[in-house]
Structure formats: C-alpha cells, structure tokens
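Predict the assembly for these three chains.
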Amino acid sequence: MKKIYFKEEYCMACRLCEIACLVAHSKSKKIIKAYKEEFPGLTPRLIIEQKGSLSFAIQCRHCKDAPCVEACITGAMKRDKKTGVVSHDKEKCIGCWMCVMSCPFGVILMDIKEKKVATKCDLCADVGSPACVDACPNEALVYKESEKV
Amino acid sequence: MKKSLLFPDFTVIRDPDKCIQCEVCVRQCAFDAHSFDKAANKVETDASKCVSCLRCATMCPTGALTVSEYQQNIRKNKNWTDKQIKELYKQAETGGILLTGMGTDKDYKIIWDHILLDAAQVTNPSIDPLREPMELRTYLGSKPDKIQLKIKNEKLKIEKPLSTFYSPLTKLPPQLKLETPILFSAMSYGAISLNTMRALARASDECGIFYNTGEGGLPKELYKYGKNTIVQVASGRFGVDPDYLDVAAAVEIKVGQGAKPGIGGHLPGEKVTDEISQTRMIPTGTDALSPAPHHDIYSIEDLSQLIYSIKEATEYKKPISVKVAAVHNIAAIASGIVRAGADIVAIDGLRGGTGAAPTRIRDNVGIPIELAIAAVDSRLRGEGIRNRASIIAAGGFRNSADVVKAIALGADAVYIGTAALVAMGCHLCQKCYTGKCNWGIATQDPYLVKRLNPEIASRRLVNLIKAWSHEIKEIMGGMGINAVESLRGNRLRLRGFDLHENELKILDIKPAGESM
Amino acid sequence: MKMKEKIVIIGSSVAAISAIESVREKDKNIRLIVITKEKDLFYSRPLISYLNISDKQFYYRDKNFYKKNNIELIFDSAISVENDFVVLRSGKKIKYSKLLIAVGGKPIIPSNISGITGKNVFTLTTKDDADNIKKFCKNQKHAVVIGCGMIGIKAAEFLKNLGLQVAIVELAAQPFASVLDDKSGKIVADEIKKHAKLILNNSVYEIKENQCILKNGEKIPADIVICAIGVAPNLDIAKKSQIKTNRGIVVDEFMRTSRKNIYAAGDCTEALDILSGKKMPIPIWPVAFRQGSVAGSSMLVGNVKYAGGFVRNSVDVFGLPLITLGLSNDKSGEEIVFSDEKSKVYKKVTVKDGKIIGAIFVGDISRAGIFTGMIKDGIDVSNFKNEIFSENFGYIYVPKEFRSKEVTPIEI
C-alpha cells in the first residue's frame, strides 16, 4: 500500500503540513476561510514532533497489526485487508478512547469539539493524494509504496 | 544603551485579511523578525531585524507578507546616499570593518550588457540545434604545442578511419571532460552547508561537469563524487592530504578570489563544528584563518614549485588549476601562471561572490571579468602559449548569454557560483557571513541546514545547467556555429554597444555597426 | 486442511469474532461452527450500559457478518468436551477437528452477603443482563452498586441514566483500587461524588428488598442492587473436560490448551503477562482480540505467536477520561508525576530498571498510547524520563533504533 513517510533529515518543523491537513479536512477547504471561520473547531490529523533540532510530522501508520483496530470496542476502527488502509467510522465511534490508549505513535486524536469522537489520518482518501505531502515545501513527507499488504 | 541612529532597511507588510496566525513566518525567520505575542494571540513583526531574504513571504501559506524597501525621507543627495549614511552610522556605532556576503551590488557598468552577439543571415546559414548535432563538450587542460603522428604502413583508403593510418606519438596532458562549458565555483564546507555541497556534487555528477570544494576540505561522504570534484589547495591548506588529492579530478591552487583580492579568509571558531573540524583537519572551535598570501609563494618560481609538487603528488594524472582574482595586471599574472606550469587558469572578476568579505574590498578592488578574459586571452595568444592552459572565467555570470560572450571573448569555460545558489533558493540577502541563512545554504545551524533538501536542490541545479546548455546551443545555432570549439575566442562575432573606445580596444571587439 | 475438517468455536464475543476473521483470511472454505448462548449475536459487550447509542454503534460487526463468513450457528450452551465432541446442553454432540474455547468471564458473586440471590440483585455482563435491569428499573428510585471498578462505574452511569439515584459501595479506600494511586483515586472519587453517592471502606452486609445494610450498620435505600466486584475466567467447560486450568485456562503462545486440538482465547484464559513474566488472566478487550486472532491462525497453520500482553484500560468516569496502563499502582518504581489540580489533570509514569512499568492518566489522556507502546517494546527511558511530561514529549523520544518498522519505508 501507499503510505506517508517522514524524512526527518529534511523536516524543518514549518508546520505547513499541519495547516494543509486542517484545511483539507475543513468544510470550506479554503485556507483563509477555514482559519477565520472554522477555527478553533478543526483538529489536525497529524502531529509534528520536535526534540532539539530534530523534528518530523507523524500521522496514522496504517499498521499491519493495528493496535487501535484490536482495541476498538465498536468496530469503528477497521483495517481493509485488501488495501491495508486503517479507517475510522465517525458514526460508529463512541469516544471510549481505547484507540488513544493503544496507538503507539499517539496519532489518534480526540475531536471533542463537534462530537466526542476519535479522529485520524485518512490519507485524504477523497482527494487522492495526502494534503500534508503536497504541502511540504522540502519533500520531508513522501507518499510512497510500502511493503505489500 | 543609546538609541541607534540606524533605521531599518526593510519594512514588512502583513495583510490582516490574509494572515491566519499560523506562525509559519515565526518559525522560519532565523533573524527573529517575527514573533508570536501569546498574550495578544497575535503574530508581530520587528522589521528592523528583517534582511529581506523573503523566506517568510515565500513560505506564508496565504501570501499575507510583503517585504519592501523601507522608505525614509532622508534628504536626497547623490553623494551622501541612504546607503552611505547608514554605513557611517553603523561604523560610528560599532567601530568595526563592515562585513558583507555575495558579490558586489554596486552600480558598476555591466559590460556583458554592452556586448551584442552576431547571427547568421543569408550569406551563411544558421543551424537548427534540434535537427543538427551541436557540440558543447569541452576539455580543460594543457594542449600540446604540436602533435606528432606515426604513419603506419597502410594505403590510404577513404572508407577507413584515420587511426588506421596514423597513431599519435604525442602524449596528451590530463584533461577535464565537461559535457557543457560550465562548472560550479569554489564554495567551501563551512561557508556553505553539507547539504548544499551534496546538491552541487550530485548535480555535477548528473550533468557531467565539476564542482569545486573551495578551501574547506572534502567531507569523506562526498568522496564518491571524486570524479566530478575539483579540490582546492589554498593558503590555509585546510583538509589537504594525499586522499584529498587522490580522489579529485583536478586540483586548484587558490591564490585569490574576485570578491576579496588580496584578502585572506576567516572562519570564526564557533562555526568550526566537529564535522568541519574533521574535514578541515583543524581542532574543533578554533578559528580557521586563511592567510592573505600563501606563505610559500612570493614569486612565479615559488608558484611553479607548488604546482609541480602537486603534479608529482598526483603523478601527473590530474590537471592543476591556479585561481586568481582579476586585478590590474591580470594578463601578465596569467602569463606567469601558465609559464609556471598550470594547466588551467581560473580568473575571478570584480563581481565574484563570497561568503564573507569586507564591504570596502568587495566593492572596490579588482577589475570586471569581461576585460580580464579579453586581456588574458590576447596576452597568451600574443605570447604563443594560449594552448598551454585553459581559461575558466568566474564572477557574476547571470545567464547563458553571458557564458556565450565569455567564451567568444576567449574563455574555455565559466564558473558559476551565485547563479547556482540562486537556483537552490538563495535570495541574495547578503547575510551569508551571519551563518543564519534562512534558506539553509550558508549555515551550519542544525535547524537551518535541514531546509535545503539536496534531492530538490540538485534537481534544480540540473535543470539550470540543462536550460543554459539548451540556450547556448540555440544561440550558437543562430550564429551558424555547431561546436563550442568554434566559438572560443571568436571575437569577430561580438560587437560592442555603448562602450568606450578603450574598452573596445581591450575587449578587442568592433563597435556595433562595423562590418567584419 | 481436508474439507471434512471443521473448526468449532464456543462463544461469540470479540475473541471469537477475531478468530473467525483470522481463519477466514487464510481459508475461505473450511467449515466454521459457532456455539453461543447469546440470542443477539453481534453486539459489543462493553457497550451494554450505554443508553443513547445507535444500533450502528452497538453492533460490533454488521448483521451479515456470520453469513458473509459462512458460519454455521448453534444457539446452545456447551457443557463439556468429550473425545472430539462438544457436548451441548440439549444433549447434542458436535464433532470438531479444532476447537476454540472463547467463553469469556463470569461475574464474581460473593457468597457471604445475605440476600445476594434476591430478585433485585443483578450482574451486568451481557445484553440480557442490561435488558433485565432496564425492565426492573421502571418506577424504581434507589440503586446500589457493589464495587467501584470498571463495571461498577459503567453500572452506576447506566442506572443514573435510567433515572435512579445511585450509591456505590466499595470495600477499598478509593475507586479502581487496584490500578489507581491515592492522588488519582481522590480526583476520580471527587468526580464520582458529583454524580453518585460513593461509600468507601465499606461493604454490603445484607441485601433486603428495599435497602442494603452495610458492614458498619448503616442502612441505605436500594430498590436494585448490581453486583460489580469483578469478573473471573469462565472455567466451567475446561474443568469438566480435563483441560488444565489455573486462574484461567492455561494456554501457550499459540493459544493451545493442555488438550490436543483445543485452543482457548480471551477472558477465559491465562496467558503471558509481559510485566510480571508470568501467566495470568488479563480480561481486557484488546488482549481478547489478539488472542482470538492468534488462535484463529494457529488452528490453521500455527506460525503466529502471542507475544504476551499487560493490563490496560480506558474508561470514562462520568465524563472524566481515565487511562491506566500496566502496574500503575506499583510503589516499587520511580514515579514521574504531572498534576494540575485545577483542571483535574493527573498523570503518572512509573519507571523501574529504566523501563516504564505502569502509567496513570486522569483528565488528560492525549497520546497515552505512546506509553503503551513503550511498555510493550520495553523501551529504556532512563535518558529522557524527566522529559516525559514536557510539552514536546512524543514518539520522537523513542530512540531511532527502536522505532517501529511502520515509520520507515521499505524500499521495494
């Protein structure tokens, strides 16, 4: 499957990926509008981590043995055996945070503004290519084929 | 402390309708011009810290930032300009030599823009480079005075190649093979980041050209690009050891630099990181001082000794280049260099770049490269030794037309430095000497060096070289010339426009309007 | 496997479902038989106490799950295993070639409380239990919950949402006594007290029709009593079938029991606990899922091992999020604590021999999973333990050589 990978040696923590992620998952999809009218109310689906001069952006790894899928008590978190994509069904989620407890990368976030549900990277499934990857000015995020599913 | 009399160089305009308070500008500015006021929950800008590198404006996701010149109504005065006055204030406040980076920005006449190229019309045909082969391949190095051939005992037949009948007796001295007559100028590790060097090395490899280590040594990691590397031996002798000489394609003795003729170099100790200390072979944290002269070169004979020492060390397998700044006596100096045994003479003109130089030196010392090329080429031809060395011209080549004109004036190839840096992202803010390059080029700061992804930068450099090469072919085709060899020294195809008679004389070109 | 062979699974909750998915991923054709006591098949047990949730949320797998996976269903209770047959309550015998016991846990009911068998006393582990409680609660006012752990809290919320006044009686000095320390216990207790009466250091001595008499003689009104002191592995079938049991059904890393061709998974088992290095029951959802999955693949090919687990839970206490990991109340390690009383945030990580052995998160549970991962992978945190609760802490602190392969691209 195709996954998003970070190249920490080129991540400069500009956070443009985070901004792109917010906008891509906003209602208007327009940056200024999203920020001025929907913010706060937007939860990014990736996390930028920084330690000294080291930094990277990390989002759902779509793990093979996904701990979030194992822990989900409603079946909202699912892994498609064909595509390898771990997806989250907001309608099914009840906000028990078992996934938050389980994700070793800490990339399942809590959307508590609208409805108490978990939220995570969906690889921008509806757009085609992930907005964070497109937005990275330094190609520190790449969207590439990984091991076979 | 008393208030400074200096006023800012730039003003930063933030469009409140567009700014989304995302703080990208705050994170991108190493000069701390932008900051986030937590209490007010607002991004603020202190324009007095802005150097107009335009990193923030480029990265701003909404295009909310505009940097423009700070307009203050100092009474207009042709003599005492804003710049002059500011420099006086600065010196009055610091008591120091003014430092700067990059090539001079002074309003000198650019002779390139007064030289016009010829094109073929009616009486001689132009060539379509898309249909006809066009040769840009260039060999740099000493060419023999004459070639001796051994004639084989074969009957001449037109269908057989010439090598069937003759074999050369003359051994050709070592040559650098360039796919296009362009090289990347010397930029040292320390002045530029390792990522920048990686990009230059990779691009050279891909384009079949060369980059130059400058005087900062060669990081071990780049040894794999040795066949595309020219290593420098400069007055500080940093990083010079047998491996360094062995791995390179050519060795360049650096005597002078166009941006600071007669001046040495000084890399402050705080920039000498562990990696740089290993590469330069000096202790971490010590100042890296390049003396103004080589302390073992006080004459052409001394230079010759060094040239031959290096030739001996490299078993006469690599061409040796000598790089000098274009100064008043450049023609005689070049002649001496060739007679000293150099295979290549590199001449760096008035507008050559630098990572750090005293402003007064950069802006006032040396001569334009255009005049230097012509003077040197004429002198060497006059002395009958032009074949003994190739000429690389350097110092402010901005585009492919400049390259064509330089070759027509007599250069074999050109070094490009600034143009390559700009291709990688440099915005010519001239703050290289601060080590805070926001574009990740002229810095060793671990936060900043990551900003230059060598994969992207080398791709951009390759594109630049490719584009210029296409343009050179296009121009040559228009002139009816199909090989760069036929363009070299072809001053007949140049005309001067709006140039003084003496300039025309030195350039040895005719004024526009005058026939062959 | 030959077409004649068939896999029989006893139970229909998460371990069973995960085993079914694991089997079907590898073999679409082998016969799969599920024996279950449940009338309603697809629901998620932890959700039985939730009132305002949709069917979509309540049912763990969609209604066609059994059809899609080609499962034969037998609605009956399994009693024991004889030779290669499962004996059902109805007297029927089901032949198996591989058997999975995934019967879960049984609520613990103390025998020393008089009136515990009364009609007004319930437990809360299945949908039937919840339905019965709902029916019984109509027109009732007072409820007593015995035990203030996971089920106790969920039962209290359930009853409160049904409109009853709730009192929780807990033997220990604080809620979630086995996993919370004093400070976090107090924050949680204070939160519970806003919504229910919390009686600590006490126990129910006698249950009458409308009241409970506590050990200290105090009488509290109780129209309904829910006994929620805990769950123990269901060993009924195993004990009758000469399968080795301890506290749970003993299994190896392939989820094999002591009897050939019989496997067990989920709350009924005792498998490796990585923190103690011993086998013990860990009755939590993710462990059941994992074990079910391992058992499913073991029954077919047997190359996937169960690497062990450790106890962890996430629970919402009347709106206050709470996560505990591992030996969260172990006092032998070094404690790294962050607390902000105003915002009811308390976080603690316990480090022993350089490794995290337990953690507590009250109020702020964001990114707690990073610690779950660090416990699981046994990451040495000595170098950065003091930064664990700094603003920038995150996955980036995991040393590069220990990073998951999921973050590094594999060149193909």
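Chain B has two domains: 10-96, 181-511. The domain at 181-511 of chain B is CATH 3.20.20.70 (TIM Barrel).
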